[in-house]
Amino acid sequence: xAGGERRGAxxxxxxxxxxxxxxxxxxxxxxxxxxxxSMQGRxxxxxxxxxxxxxxxxxxxxxxxxxxxxxVNSSLKLLSTSGQWTTLDSKVTKTEAVVVPCxxxxxxxxxxxxxxGLVRETGDIVKCYDDYYEDILISDELRKVLLLExxxxxxxxxxxxxxxxxxxLFKHLxxxxxxxxxxxxxxxxxxxxxxLYKDLLSVQKDPETKEIRIISTVFRVSAYDDNxxxxxxxxxxxxxxxxxxxxxxxxxxxxxxxxxxxxxFSG
Length: 267
Hints:
The chain is 25% helix and 26% strand. It is of the alpha+beta class. Mean pLDDT is 92; it is low at 1-8.
């Protein structure tokens, strides 16, 4: 929920950084995959700088300031109900931000898909009888383990695993948009997840242990105006999402936004 500002301190101020494009979303191979998954033209990453030190406990204050900053309000992109890109341009009255853990530093996190037989050694995803989760078609064991709690393999990923940002990105890509053409092999999902994760997060090497650790903080966010939910969309859907990824050292914040629907073939 929205939190108050620090007493006597100025709110965070933000500046749009349009030149800081996310490399993986500019890559032609990634764009082709996102088009196949019905996400191209409906997914966007934007970068903003902010002007003061950020601490994770300032989550609510930071997110409220972000959505109420004029530079953000006039440049933060979202899809309208007619499928056109527009900007927020709305008086935000309430924000919600959920911390998304991001502790994973290796794609070996997904090795269990192979060891438990959901994916063959060749990378082929094992098929299953068609089922549905809400309006999402499930025709393989991968989407089954991602979506269906009564799946035989659901416990392969714990509830904590499923909250990890790495898992969230992978799941979003595997499910895709409204007209998603699903992959028969897992490799494109894993490669695209890795590229997004690497581009969005900042890491540091611990000077003593030499271990790599992630220094970014990630929030899944939504915003409301007088008419109700306005960002990431007025209509909630599992595949309509917005994340804020905060780099406290560079004082940069990335947004990763997607609105569920049919892909734009021109995007």
